[in-house]
Design goal:
binds magnesium ion, binds adenosine monophosphate, DHBP synthase, 11 helices, alpha/beta, Rossmann fold, 2 domains, 32% helix, 345 residues, eleven-stranded mixed beta sheet
Amino acid sequence: MVTINPDHPDPGDVKRAGEILKKGGLVAFPTETVYGLGGNALDPSASRKIYAAKGRPSDNPLIVHIADLSMIGPITEEFPEKAKTAAGKFWPGPLTMILKKSGLVPMETTGGLDTVAVRFPSDLTAQALIRAAGGYVAAPSANTSGRPSPTTAAHVAEDLGERIDMILDGGPVNIGLESTIVDFTEDVPVVLRPGYVSLEMLREVLGDVRMDKGLISENSSVRPKAPGMKYRHYAPKADLIIVEGEQEDVVRHISELAAKAEQEGKTAGIIASDESRNRYRTGIVKTMGSRAHEETIAHNLYEILREYDQLDVQVIYSEAFHTPRMGQAIMNRLLKAAGHRVINV
Ligand code: AMP
Ligand code: MG
């Protein structure tokens, strides 16, 4: 583990990390969304190593990270006008674009697809590392497949410590949820995974934008277009159940459920907000932050799920967090963690 200053990453450290990637090794590094597990995106054996280290199914493609717009050309067949517009508005930043891939990108990196996911992160350490590595770094989240995504270097060490060559520790990440993924291979762009960049923000600059049917459908026979979205991600060890409804009813119902769990000899976790935390009398209560500051909720979600994994709780009841801008992304991750178990009150 190498500690770096996120505003001024030490050039020597970055160079060493870049050399590891050039030689086919793996380096975990911070980005503005979550920590990534990097390997050379153009080297099939590096991509295979990433899948092995994470225990990730090899049909679940990796995102290729770039640090300059000029790097798009060599790895894609075309860069459509709408994608250019989105790049102008949201790059560098938490937006991933699906584009038609060129022959330069190995099938190992794209999970056998003829499209490639590309992102230009805003994090300075990430940018410096990508440049030092030669321009193309494949990086999924740096967690063991199925665990919450890592928002600190300690999370990475916990999951992958011995299995990778280096961890760059730049402190806690900024956003805390993975990037928004948008498919630009069709006329109307399609959101494959919600994130910090919301549907409304995209529509403002691109006009018509759709949500992938596989994301919004209750019916699991509609397959999500991003292969990764079909897996049950972020699963905590305890059963997680979301309770939805008016705030008053939610607090009352969760309190009843937690009390009942205790009578049965179980310990219940309760995921609350700053506004409601003092109203619970039983269970182990953790707050996601204030509903008035939805960034804090996005930022704390994965950390809280990991904290409950360290505690002896058998069941976790969570309030729902349909916040104005990032609510879609937050609820997408929370619902997946809960295996879509929701009680409406
Ligand atoms: P992660 O980097 O772990 O956050 O996961 C990357 C996500 O991007 C997964 O859900 C993948 O299925 C998705 N993805 C990557 N490449 C593609 C692609 N070419 N087409 C559709 N989805 C993709
Ligand atoms: Mg992931």
